[in-house]
Amino acid sequence: MQEQEVKEQLKKDILDILAYCINCRFCFPSCPRFDITPGESYQGSSGITRSLYYAIKWGLDDKESLNELRDILYSCMTCKNCEVACKKLSTATKLMDAVEKGRQLLIEEMIGPMPEQKRALESLERYSNPYGMPPSERKDWIKGLGTPSFSKETEVLFYVGCTAPHDPAVDKMAKAVVKLLQQTKVKFGIIEDEICCGNPSLKMGEVLLFEDLREKNLNQFQELGVKHIVTLSPHCYDIFMNRYPEEAMKGVKVQHYTQFLADLIDQKKLAFKSKIEKKVTYQDPCYLGRHNDIYDAPRKVLHNIPGIKLVEFPQARIDSVCCGGGGGRMWADFESEIERIANLRVKEALEIGVEMIVTACPWCLINMIDGVKSVNVEDKLAVKDLAELCVEAL
Ligand code: SF4
Ligand code: SF4
């Protein structure tokens, strides 16, 4: 398709999706940006849909307005709260599709992404990861894991993702999953030359780059004969499950590591012996929960750790609140926000009287750790990934 045709198709698709929106604003209070952008009603979910709708309808072309539209559209964390609210209370508008296509359109118009996100995309293009990490550095990190490379005899591919080699907290998380896999005698392996699943490029609207990464991954999976993938990140899980063609992924089982651990518990291949007497809460990652309906597996694992008492957030499971890191937001901050969402979540955790926030996503982990530091409650509230907790309980 020619460039102009692509733009026209995107505009048509967006208007078709947003034709369902009746501007009732029932979705508005469900948007986490509602709490952090007071008085700026155009910033929330219905603001996004209206801004996008009228920008296309009226053919906005002045740079200032388009930059404003870009800021509104890229501030969304794609947490899907609004879409759930709209489905429950109103017209079931497919807001997430509108946001994604809106970003694609802004990339086509050379308005998107946010300036600070460009570096992540350049890195993806150059190194196939969004963190500017040369492949040699990544390989060194992989060697440090002490895990076998995936081969034809391997049952499970542990797909590590890009964040673990880059961030010390996520490095610990990945090593904890490796330790659990070693304990259970599962034949697993990793790909030394693993590349990004494509999530950041897709969520920032750079679809061609996403398609390129997707093709490379699919070729690699096929060449190696991968039949079972266990991911560290809910974002990689979501991409493999929902954004790689069904046909190409036929015969490949994909699980998030919490699902894999829950299965091992059911099969009596994993049990925890050490007691951990702690009151904890669980932060549902949006791309595990709302996007993929995985709420029970991580809770089952938690309940199997002796001594753990789970106290749910008032907004948990489908109503859970985003950590602030989805939809490309790990690479973009906005002046319109007076507070980080993770800080609000940390304050809520203190209110319900827990000693620890447990999560199961690299980006939730990073954001919650930052939140605890920024609220200055490191002595009162710990943050851990579920896999780390499991290792402690072995
Ligand atoms: S709830 Fe649905 S229909 Fe109502 S404003 Fe939000 S997106 Fe539009
Ligand atoms: S996806 Fe989340 S952050 Fe984005 S508009 Fe909807 S509720 Fe707000």
Summarize the model shown:
With 394 residues, the protein is an alpha/beta fold. It folds into three domains: 3-112, Fumarate Reductase Iron-sulfur Protein, Chain B, domain 2; 117-265, Rossmann fold (3-Layer(aba) Sandwich); 271-393, Rossmann fold (3-Layer(aba) Sandwich). It is 47% helix and 8% strand.
Secondary structure topology:
Layout: H1 3-18, H2 33-36, H3 45-57, H4 63-74, H5 81-89, H6 95-108, H7 118-127, H8 135-145, E1 156-159, H9 168-183, E2 188-189, H10 199-204, H11 207-224, E3 228-231, H12 234-242, E4 253-256, H13 257-266, E5 278-282, H14 296-303, E6 308-310, H15 341-351, E7 356-359, H16 362-374, E8 382-385, H17 386-392
Parallel strand pairs: 1-2, 1-3, 3-4, 5-6, 5-7, 7-8
Helix pairs in contact: 1-3, 1-6, 3-4, 3-6, 4-6, 9-17, 13-14, 15-16
Bound molecules: iron/sulfur cluster (SF4) (2 copies).
One iron/sulfur cluster binds at residues 21-27, 45-46, 49, 85-86, 90-91, 93, 95.
Cross-sheet strand order for the largest sheet: 2-1-3-4
Topology-level CATH name of the largest domain:
Rossmann fold
Helix content: 40-55%
Beta-strand share of residues: 5-15%
The beta-strand count equals 8
Which CATH-level-2 architecture of the largest domain?
3-Layer(aba) Sandwich
Q: Tell me the name of the CATH class of the largest domain.
A: Alpha Beta
Radius of gyration: 21 Å
Structural class call reads: alpha/beta
Q: In words, what does this structure look like?
A:
It contains 17 helices and 8 strands. The protein is an alpha/beta fold and 394 residues long. The protein folds into 3 domains: 3-112, Alpha-helical ferredoxin (Fumarate Reductase Iron-sulfur Protein, Chain B, domain 2), CATH 1.10.1060.10; 117-265, Rossmann fold, CATH 3.40.50; 271-393, Rossmann fold. The strands form 2 sheets. A 4-stranded parallel β-sheet has the order 2-1-3-4. Strand 7, helix 16 and strand 8 (382-385) form a beta-alpha-beta unit. The termini are far apart. The relative contact order is 0.12. Bound molecules: iron/sulfur cluster (2 copies). One iron/sulfur cluster (SF4) is lined by residues 30-33, 44-45, 48, 76-82, 95. One iron/sulfur cluster is lined by residues 30-33, 44-45, 48, 76-82, 95.
